[in-house]
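ARCHIVE CARD
Drawer: 12
Card no.: 0347
Subject: one protein chain, sequence and derived structure
Cross-reference: see card 0346
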Amino acid sequence: MNKIFSTIIFAILPFIAIKAEPDPNFYIYLCFGQSNMEGNAKAEEIDNFVTSRFKMLATCDFSSPARKLGQWYVAKSPIVNPAGGLGPSDYFGRTLVAALPKNVKVGVIAVAMGGSPIEMFDKDLYEQMLTDHPDDWWAYLAKTHYGGNPYQRLIDMARKAQEMGVIKGILLHQGCSNNGNSKWPSMVKKIYNDMLNDLGLDAADVPLFVGETLREDQGGACWLHNTVVAKMPTTVPTSHVISSEGCPGNGTDPWHFSAMGYRMMGYRYAYEALRLMGRPLIADAEFTLQPNLKRLFTVDKLTLNIDTVLTLKKGRSKSINVVATFLDGHEETVTDSIHITAPDFITVSKNVIRVNAEGDGDVVVSYTDFSRKTTQVTIHLNTGDGTAISNVQAPLQHPLIYNICGQQTNTMSRGLNIVNGMKIYIP
C-alpha cells in the first residue's frame, strides 16, 4: 500500500505548483504622485531604446501599446497610464540598469493622476476627496484607471511584485495641487508609513525619494513647494530630496518639465538611489550605453567660473564651480562631483583652492561622467606679486591725477592699470 501511495505522489509531483522565492536581484520601486510623475512629455527618438532588464508592472489596462493590469512588460513610455507620457520613472530605471551588474533587473510600479492632491493617496481620505470633487480630472483618472482607489491599486500591485522581487524604494513627485502647504510633509509621512505597514517593509530598507517641482527660473509656478519639500528629511529621516535645479520646463505651461527635464530628474532619482547603495555614479563596465544614453551621459566640455590662467596671492582662496555640457546639448552643474589635483603650495578643500606659499603650477579639474569618460580642464596658477588679482574695479571716490613718465591721467581706478606699458596697482 505504501509503495502504491509513493508511486502516486511521484506521479503527480511535476504538476504541483511550487512557489518560487522572490529574486533578490530584481529591484522594485514604487512610484506615485500627480502629472509630473505620470509623465507629461512626448517621447522622442532618443527615448526609443529600452533594455529588457528594465520592467514595468502595469497598474491598469493599456490599449496602445496593449497591456493588461498586473502583467510585467519592458518599461517603454508611457509607463504609468494611457494618459501619461515620458516621465521621471523612464530614466530612473534606465540609469539604474546601466549602473548595476548585468544580473540585476529593475522594475517600477507607478500610479499617478494629473492634478491629484496628495490626499488621494491617503487610504483614510480618498473617498471623501472623490465625494467632494467628483468631476475633477484627477477623479476621472482615479476611477477610470485605478478603480477609484489609487493607493490600494499601488499596494495590490506591490504585493504581486513582492512574489517576484524585492521592493527597494519609493519615488514621489507631487506638490502643485498642495503648493506650499505646510502640512504636506506630515501627510506624506502618513502615506509612506501606511505603505510600509501594509507591505511589511522596514523604512531602513525602503527609502523615500521626493522630487522638487519645476523651479521659478525655469518658468515654474509651484516653485514655492520646494521650500516644503526641503523639510522632508526632517519629517521622514529616510527621505531624500531630488533637486530640480536646471531642469527645463516645457515652455508651454508653468507646471511641467520638458522631455529633457524628465530625463534629468529621472537620472537624479537614480543617482541618489545608487549613492545609498554605495555604488559609483558610472555605468557598469559590462554595460554598453546605446546611442540615446551615450549622448545623454557623455560630457562634451567643462566650463569653469574662473580663468584658466590665474594669479592668486598667498593666503587667498578661490572656489571652483563647474558646468558640464553633454553631447545632447543639455547642461548640468557637476561641482559636487569634480576631482581637483594641485601642486604642493596649494591646498584643496572640496571645490576651494587656497594658496599657502609662493609658487607656480597647474591645478587640474577633472570630472568622470556616467559613461566613464574623464574630462579635464587645467588652470595655470601663480602667486605673482599681487598686481594681477583683478581687472579694473569701481572708480575711486575722489578721482586723482597721476603723472607717470610725463603722462597724466585722471581715470585711475582701483585694480590693475596700465599706463605707458607700466603696471600700476592701486589697492
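Annotation on reverse: Residues 386-427 have pLDDT under 50 and may be disordered. The longest strand covers residues 360-368.
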